[in-house]
Amino acid sequence: MKQFADRAFLALLLAVLLAVPLGVALWSHKETTAYYENRSLAEAPELTAESVWDGSFGTEAESWYSDHAPGRTTLLELDTWVQMKLMGRPVVNGIVTVGDVLLPELEFDEYSEEAYRYGAAPIAEDFGALSAYVESLGGTFCYVGFPEQRVYFEDQFPDYLNNHSQEAATADAVFAEALAEQGVDFLNMREVYDQQGNPAEYYSAVDHHYRYWGTYAAYRAILDHLSEQGWDLPVLTEEDLEFQSLPYPYIGSRNRKLYNLWPNEEQAVIAVQKDPVAFTRWDNGAPSDKPLFVLPASEELPTTYNLYMGGDFGETILDTDRPELPNVLVFGDSFTNALETLLYASFNEMHSLDLRYYTEQSLKDYIAAYQPDIVLCVQNDTFYYTEGGNNAVWVD
Amino acid sequence: MSFGSMVFLFGFLPAVLVCYFLLPARWRTGRNTVLLIFSLAFYCWGGVALLPALLVSCVGNWAAALWAAPGHRGRKAVYGIALAGNLVMLGYFKYTGFLLENLQALGLDVTVPSIALPAGISFFTFQAMAYLTDVYRGTIPAERSLPRLTLFMAFFPQLLQGPILRYGEFAPALTQRRENSEDAAAGATRFCFGLAKKVLLADSLGVIADAAFSSGDRLTMSLAWLGGIAYTLQLYFDFSGYTDMAIGLGRIFGFRLPENFNYPYISKSASEFWRRWHMTLSFWFRDYVYIPLGGNRCSRGRQILNLLAVWMLTGLWHGSAWNFVLWGLYYALLLMGEKFLWGKFLEKLPAAVRHAYALVLIIIGWVLFRSGSLAQVGQMVAAMFGAAPGGLWSAETAYYLHQFHWELLLAIPASLPVKQVLEERLAARKGKAAQMLLILGPKVLGFGLLGWSVVRLLSSTFRSFLYFQF
Lengths: 396, 470
Hints:
The complex is a heterodimer. By secondary structure, chain A is of the alpha/beta class.
């Protein structure tokens, strides 16, 4: 009996040890992306004399092999389930799973106010130069800042985790102060949402973005703000729109990291114009037939925040052919996407840039060539202090 | 290459097993050659640039031992030169930076070069020195075959982190070992348990330790203790896990490698702890340093000097930094205290008190060991005894207790001889169910742990074993 058990165990073990490389060779080496991790899988390492000499071949081979293990996604999903459901960890795959909303795990370390002041000054200086430049061309510039979901729901962090509440407030205030010193008009949506009582439905429980209710509130706040500055723009009122909860399963960026295993009833919301403002669209310089809301083919298929405008593009233009209205240039992060589905209707033309992807020319040159009436920078607070991307606003 | 890597588990390991066992058992040289080739490939995986140091050591010690064997003229000088050569090589790779940094701190205008440390150099150098000494003493004959000696030095299961082998124990197996399914199954099971110790326990506990040791001004008394305890457990599961894998792999290939751990955390004194922790290193220092210096058979003053020398060297062996020296001297003081001062009093205390005494001292010892600088040693130890910048308790401590409660709970029975006791009890029962459980239980559990460990490996980035750096 013992000998049989020993041999059966060894045979099974050897079969598993051989099955994995066989599986990699036969099929899993072809995979290129890890959807739930939102990244590309490691590429096969190049065998060179140098890489073998310095050991980089071994390191890269390990990454490649781990990434291409057969059944990797299923195994990681199983692991996530075990961590969440069986082991009851409060943080799984970098996501805080306790409470009513999914939040990112934040470090216990915090930056000091001095560090923020040091970081804010040069960024604000660039925005100050941009603002002055837009005004010199007869336009209006406004920076619209949004709280990211983790800030909006900062009270939902469990007591034993650092929600960086104080730090976020400091960073916000320092940034606003620095922009004010440079004469930059700053619309802080955090304050606007605060005044409206921070309704829970404004932000997603499973994604780092706002929901469409929050988008609409921002749209109205921006138009009110521009109106105060003398711009007379048509506004899409709630009567002009029909808000619809979509039937598709909604995968937020937070829940995606959990392999969509967190119980989630949230549905994506869109607002359909009862009397739609027609437009023609260009993406990255080419005509596009993409609608404002890109929906899945069937109700069983999941959707994500990318449904708004079809995700991030370097450049998108929506032309409503109403020359009596001003032109707007919006640049910023993905918070612009949902906003654009409403904003375009208030302008003749809406040009949208995401400087993380747009490389044709500098923002300065773009503005010089296009000469928009209004320039809006739309970013969430996690990007206030980053270098490059949509903060590279005053480079040649 | 780490045992806890996908390339090792699902590339190197099946390849070596297939190549090895496809050769007929009677062709011992062929099987040894397979092990040698794979051992060198295993070492080269981290970069062929590291190989020359290992090869120089193998060839140099092989040649020196042939000359240093009894009956040769000038053998004493050759033995001395060879020992010095080993120490120079170890010193160059491991201690040059440390020495020059200290000279720099003293105001000398020296530049500190960046020298890549060949993995496992402390282990294979000590094996070589032990081999040379045993040959010189006439305890064992010099090995005439360079491939055999190279296999002894480079045997991949123990190349990077031990256990430290003696050639006298290893050599007979090179020609006389007999692989069988019973040994292979026991070895494979032990490998699976070792992998789980490393991946499921040590790596998770390491997150707590890393957080505590990098918390700076946030450090609280509770976090300092939690970090110290977590590191104590991490180091044990990391190192003993590796040893389990090494011994398990050795057994699959028919070798019986020496044990390195004997449940060190059940010790009731610092002296007992060192009889249970990293035993092959302790034996090495005993046989090749302490006893040649006079051991216990000399005056008390000389004994104290001998102990100080051995423990300072033990500290330095682990790393080229002052906190390792401090750690070595800390144990020298404890062992001398137990030997000459409070040892007899300690023996009269209840077992629970002695156990608590030993554990507290061991945890403080690991805090010295883990700290990145003498300043951090001071900060951590002060925090443990109440002078923490963040006070007594922090939310951070609560988080790590929540997040890793399973690992902390499992670590306790896993560091005690629970498995051993269970196996003994099952073996004593004569029922069929008990026998079935005894035969199948470890295999099923081992297989499950292997699967779970692989899943955890996939979900994490590659992590190296702690003892690689030594």
